[in-house]
UniProtKB/TrEMBL annotation:
Keywords: DNA recombination, DNA-binding, Transposition. Residues 44-66 are annotated as: Disordered. One of its GO terms (biological process) is DNA transposition. Residues 44-53 have a biased composition (Basic and acidic residues). Required for the transposition of the insertion element. GO terms for molecular function: DNA binding; transposase activity. Belongs to the transposase mutator family. It comes from Spongiactinospora gelatinilytica. This is IS256 family transposase.
């Protein structure tokens, strides 16, 4: 038993329930040696929760077997020059605890390897025995820790917890590095953060190797089978700077978000553009979009009812000839007033509003004709031509009720996650290759999903109900589409036999 520091008093209480005349139970404390379990049992019995089996399963708090001496010693040794407490870094409280636990575990591993414990008679004449210790510094999630690793004379001991030639303890540190990387920090920023906060020194290559460990999972995610039918698919791209053909250039990374028949949104994949060697340029081309759509079909997608994108009709119809292509109406609204003088934009926008809020396609055509013949249309003919050029891709959403129109009105279903992804890519000067682009975007997608899931879980813990408002919904990968049940019924009527 650990001795108490001088001047300290050890008080162990034994509890005995005492029945009052009215039947209530109280606790009577007796100053005798006990492990404190009786007090816990009596307290549980007092509030009506006394179950011997539950009490036996409760873990003993670490504070009880440690007593006061160990925490006091750690507290004293972890003070800095200013009298503050250092929880992380070399020589800190947590580092000392990790050192003690790891060295104790390594001793247990060696005893298991040798077949006998330290100083046991069974070790005499066994042919192998302990051979001292060797110093080794490992990087952990709380800073560097100097360990005394035990050895055996035969040199056959291979530690599992701290492997030979391993410079860090995986787990907490690796997860921290991957999380920082997913939030948009560059490798050099992660190096500086670990050095400044945890006094951990890791090379550029070591951090890159830690983040590269997710590439196998990313490749499996990119090749996973998909749903047979997606009623709606949003297609878009974000532009990133990538070193390709020894030149840093802007390349689009294509992204798709599909809504399945249950109304859940999924990200089928991320496709960085492949730069042709002879041109050394990359752009959003129909040729590459055709390859993306073909990849979706090869992974099990049999049909797409509506593709939400800006143009690229032919690219979609290569793999899915019966798909309806709907352009983004919001983009048309933004592009139409660009040639209009600032003082006239409000008036022109009011006239253009009559086009995209018309009850049907014929009324929209009449509104466009009226605008073209009006004074505003003659003064700014380019504003009307924006709708004329995209008329075939603009009018499909008029066939549906306002509920479905809101779903098809804009590409916000994919632009919202794109905004989140741009936040983690804008801090990068450039990426060394396509794998680095896919790796970061995939980690960012997982990070966004994790953040939204935690928010919903916290809300459910507080209120007992899960939030379902658009502001709290998941941006991607499983988000429930608002009003999907009514939309699915209408889509099934418009596309008979294609939704199963």
């Amino acid at each position: 038993m650990i001795k108490a520091p001088r001047g300290a008093r050890w008080l162990c209480w034994q509890s005995k329930p005492h029945e009052r005349p009215n039947g209530a139970t109280t606790i009577r404390n007796v100053g005798v040696e006990s492990d404190g379990r009786a007090l816990l049992e009596a307290a549980a019995h007092q509030d009506g929760r006394h179950r011997p089996s539950d009490t036996a399963q409760q873990p003993v708090p670490l504070r009880e077997p440690l007593g006061d001496q160990v925490p006091d010693l750690l507290l004293e040794r972890s003070r800095d020059g200013a009298g503050g407490l250092r929880l992380t870094g070399e020589g800190s409280m947590l580092a000392e605890l990790i050192k003690a636990v790891l060295e104790r575990a390594l001793e247990a591993e060696l005893s298991s390897h040798l077949g006998y414990g330290k100083h046991e008679v069974a070790g005499h004449g066994s042919g192998n025995s302990r051979n001292g210790r060797i110093g080794k510094t490992v990087q952990t999630g709380v800073g560097p820790v100097r360990l005394a690793v035990p050895r055996d004379r035969a040199g056959t001991f291979e530690p599992v917890l701290v492997p030979k030639r391993a410079g860090r303890i995986s787990g907490g540190l690796d997860a921290m590095i991957i999380s920082l990387y997913a939030h948009g920090m560059s490798v050099r920023d992660i190096q500086h953060h670990l050095r400044q906060i945890y006094e951990v020194e890791l090379s550029h290559e070591a951090i890159s190797n830690i983040t590269d460990a997710v590439l196998e999972e990313v490749r499996a995610w990119q090749a996973r089978p998909l749903e047979a039918v997606y009623p709606v698919v949003f297609l878009d791209a974000i532009v990133v700077k990538v070193r390709d053909n020894h030149v840093v250039q802007s390349k689009p990374a294509y992204l798709a978000v599909g809504i399945d028949t249950e109304g859940a949104e999924h990200v089928p994949g991320i496709w960085p553009a492949k730069t042709p060697t002879e041109t050394a340029t990359a752009g959003q081309s129909a040729r590459f979009w055709s390859a993306v759509m073909t990849d979706l079909k090869n992974r099990g997608v049999r049909d797409v009812l509506i593709a939400r994108t800006d143009g690229l009709n032919g690219a979609v119809h290569v793999a899915f000839p019966h798909t309806t292509v709907q352009t983004c109406v919001v983009h048309l609204i933004r592009n139409a007033p660009r040639p209009v003088a600032r003082r006239d934009r409000a008036a022109v926008a009011a006239e253009l509003r009559k086009i995209y809020t018309a009850p049907d396609a014929e009324a929209a055509f009449d509104a466009l004709a009226n605008f073209t013949a009006s004074d505003w249309g003659r003064r700014y003919p380019q504003a009307g031509r924006v709708f004329e050029a995209a008329w075939d891709r603009f009018t499909p959403f008029f066939a549906f009720t306002p509920g479905v129109r809101r779903l098809l009105y804009t590409t916000n279903g994919i632009e919202s996650p794109n905004y989140q992804l741009r936040k983690v890519t804008k801090a990068r000067g450039h990426f060394p290759g396509d794998d680095a682009v896919v790796k970061l975007l995939w980690l960012a997608i997982i990070n966004i999903e994790d953040k939204r899931a935690r928010e919903r879980a916290a809300c459910k813990d507080e209120t007992g109900k899960t939030k379902s408002s658009p502001g709290s919904a998941r941006l991607i990968e499983g988000q429930r589409t608002i009003g999907w049940r009514e939309a699915l019924i209408e889509l099934d009527i418009a596309y008979p036999g294609r939704i199963r």
